[in-house]
Amino acid sequence: MLRTPLPWLAALLVAYLLVPLVAFLVRAPGQSGAATAAPGVGDALRTSLITASISTAVVTLLGVPLGYLLARSASRTAGVLGVAVQLPLALPPLMSGILLIYLVGPYTTIGQFFNGGLTDSATGVVLAQCFVAAPFLVISARSAFAAVDPAQLDVAATLGHGALSRVLRVALPIAARGIRAGMLLAWLRAFGEFGATIVLAYHPYTLPVFTYVQFSSTGLAATTIPVLVTLGAALVVLLIADRGPARRAHRRRAVRIPKPRPPALSQGPVLDFIMSARLGGFRLAVVHGGAGRNLAILGASGSGKSATLRLLAGVLTPQDAHISLGGRDLAVLPAERRGIGYLPQHPTLLPHLRVWEQVTFGVGADPALAAFWLDRLKLTDLADRYPDQLSGGQARRVGLARALAREPRLLLLDEPFAGLDAPVRDELRRLLRTVLRETALTSVLVTHDPDDAALLSQDTLLMADGAVLQDGPTRTVLTHPAGPVAARLLGVRNIGQGYVDADRVLESGPLRVALPASALKTPAWQNAKMPPTSVAWCVQPYDVRVVATGGTDGTGGIAATVDDVAHLGPIAELLLRLDGGAELTVTVPSGQEPELGARCGVEVPPEAVIVWPAT
Ligand SMILES: Nc1ncnc2c1ncn2[C@@H]1O[C@H](COP(=O)(O)OP(=O)(O)OP(=O)(O)O)[C@@H](O)[C@H]1O
């Protein structure tokens, strides 16, 4: 039994559309006088086929660029145009014909220029058909282009493809299916056009006009053959269109991979930048300068990390930017001339290209170098696969090989490990580490994970709300966050508020730690008020010690209760509730953890505590 009304509703519409057709086919053979309609039907069919095909070609040639521009532009003009080009759909075709008379009629300037040849002629038929059929093509093309991921066009730009090449080699192939559907609709609409045609070009007869003439002069029986011919022609076109383009298998040519060539080794150029941009209501202002060739950008979601990378790639327009790569200003160059490799968050492979075609897609990509990276990234066996036949990790590696095959001067990676499971992420991270080491490539890696920064960068830039929180050598940033917000971003678990007295003793609830003088000599204290003062502090879980017994003097251990125990492989993470209310997270080697609810002591080594003046 059917559980939803959907099939019934669908069946009702199918019946409504097909029953008249069936009734016609059942009754047509019995119509007396049907044959009298035959003379002239061949000419009308030819006129309809030729004019509908010419009209479709014309609206495709002009409508595809229009659809592309409408899809890519967010301007008010594009919005108005998008509505205006749909108007012919709302007009009765007869009125469309009347409007066209005002443009190309025999008494208009254009009409007179062509000696009245734009009406009552095959040209007139085409003009009428174009007017009513164009919206179908434009609407289909616009939605097909709107579905193209802008990141794919961005990546193509960074691979050296100029604006026209991006349209022809990226947007058009991706949108091809939707455009083909639009062409079919436009052809069918042009083929069936009657109202505008009868006003603008009564002659030569198209099939619909011929049928109308037969009907009004001879009666229903005389329309049998024209209707049959029209149905037959439309059916043939629909069947041809339904076969679609040749299947992949028929187009496949064997991939021939040349002998690999390793990249030339040279020390990557130093990267410095100062950039600002506005994204809607979001303001971004970033500055970086450092000696390391490999930079990691860390920050919370929405802090502007990807935007920074897109500014560096040249696919986002800055308000102001100076990007120095080896002393040369990249900001003055368009994306296609920056000589960079860019991997956005999603692999953005082109769905119509096989792996080998992807990795050699970049302008000037060296096939021998592409072959090297295919081999190095373990992709050679996948060379003839399409993107939908790859796993997420494989697709990321193809994106990486594609970027590297152009021997970029700078590699930009936007969360290359996001969404990958642990083994695949570890493998890709190791591969990337090897690539960076072997090529001495300059790179910028956007990530949420401090481990990525530790493994893949010498410098780290921390971001929050579009601004730089901290920028410096990775080791310093990870071990000495510039403030509590930076510490939180780096995943430090024990962050608190407290007070440092004149003897440099930190007091925070039950915690009392006598700080070393070095604790107040970090950059954060440079222009700050010296103790006694309020502070924020932090200590890493692995620095806190759990001891057997607890006291309350801060040296012999603070009494605490084990509130939670989480087993994380080689370590156990404890949540300790200190007597007096505060909580501390502590890690101990697995097997050495106390039981849940047990009493224990906690020692906080003074040299492990970081303190910042309270803001
Ligand atoms: N095209 C845009 N128009 C308007 N606002 C934008 C646009 N692109 C990004 N933004 C805004 O800019 C801010 C920064 O975005 P961005 O993608 O750089 O963040 P992110 O740090 O990379 O975040 P995530 O880690 O989640 O990817 C966000 O608030 C976002 O909503």
TrEMBL record:
Keywords: ATP-binding, Membrane, Nucleotide-binding, Transmembrane, Transmembrane helix, Transport. Residues 265-490 form the ABC transporter domain. Pfam families: ABC_tran, BPD_transp_1, TOBE_2. The chain crosses the membrane at residues 47-71, 78-102, 122-139, 184-205, 217-241. GO terms for molecular function: ATP binding; ATP hydrolysis activity; transmembrane transporter activity. It is a multi-pass membrane protein. InterPro entries: AAA+_ATPase, ABC_SmlMolc_Importer, ABC_transporter-like_ATP-bd, ABC_transporter-like_CS, MetI-like, MetI-like_sf, Mo/tungstate-bd_C_term_dom, P-loop_NTPase. It comes from the Bacteria. Residues 45-241 form the ABC transmembrane type-1 domain. GO terms for cellular component: ATP-binding cassette (ABC) transporter complex. SUPFAM superfamilies: MetI-like (SSF161098), MOP-like (SSF50331), P-loop containing nucleoside triphosphate hydrolases (SSF52540). It is found in: Cell membrane; Membrane. Belongs to the binding-protein-dependent transport system permease family. PANTHER family: SPERMIDINE/PUTRESCINE IMPORT ATP-BINDING PROTEIN POTA (PTHR42781), SPERMIDINE_PUTRESCINE IMPORT ATP-BINDING PROTEIN POTA (PTHR42781:SF4). This is ABC transporter related. The lineage of its organism: Bacteria, Bacillati, Actinomycetota, Actinomycetes, Catenulisporales.
